[in-house]
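Students often ask why we bother encoding 3D structure as a string. The short answer is that it lets us treat folding as translation between two languages. Here is a chain of 313 residues written in the first language.
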Amino acid sequence: MYTSEVGMTQSLLKKFLACPRACKYYLEGYRKIGLKKPMWFGSLMHYILHIWKSQLVVGNTECQPEDVLSSPLLEAYMEEQMLEFPEDVEEINKLRAVGSALLYSYAAQYAEEMKQQKWIASEIQFKEAFRGHILRGMADGIVECADGLYIIDHKFKGRQSASMASLLSRDFQVEFYYTALIQAGYDIKGFIYDVIRPPQIKPRKTETHEAYTARLLGDTLERPEFYFKRYNITFKQNELQEMRFNLLKLLDRFKTWIDMGMDDVYYSTGCAMSGGGECPYLSMCTTGDDLGYTKVETFFEELPKEKGVDNGR
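And here it is in the second language, the structure alphabet:
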């Protein structure tokens, strides 16, 4: 059973803010059966980039995309996914082709800049106390720039607004990660956000994965400004104070809801009607039936399920 003492991640708080009923289903362990394509692709790209960034952390600036893509770590990850989703092997192979093309193009866009930075950590997991709450999560990385330490984060968005910089500065993840890593002892100056647009090009009927990857690579190299945007976000002191105040109010609201037994579980129509996609709990919400769902033993999907790592239960 979930309690507030377990801690909370920014994604869990976002679920609560979006729809308390869906959040309750999530905390009860319900997950929709089958491959969740957007989430799986984001996880794949994070893992591919993590392999590369891990080499930068240890000073291997000569690591190339082909080294990452042929890594035994990546092969083991792909085998694990195919075993977990055997009915989605073709889709997984297609998404791997997309990920491979994006890595080559990402490296062409940012590799030299990344080599000049001092990489402090990649995929840094945290569990920090903050004013009666436990903040948990995993940041993509921390780099040291000329003016100090920056959190680096990668977002994968098919739709990108002209106001993206302003939207990112109000992203709940910013105030959550900034506060947690300050509590962990890092003197964070700001964020580097890499916003990556997943290609929408579909494979042709008789096209091999190699040919599909090459076609994707050609397009992403030809139009880097379409696929890649980098935003550097820093904050003034009054903005940081406002962020912490806002975060604390949200944390208090969530903790109160949990401590009162999640009794107030109204649903949000925006969760089902927005352009962000169908809520994974829509059928359970409307019918009360858990057919098509499985139950899992973790509260935090984004944290590693490795031996010795507490990911929620």
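Translate back mentally: The two ends are 8 Å apart (CA to CA). Keep this in mind for the problem set.
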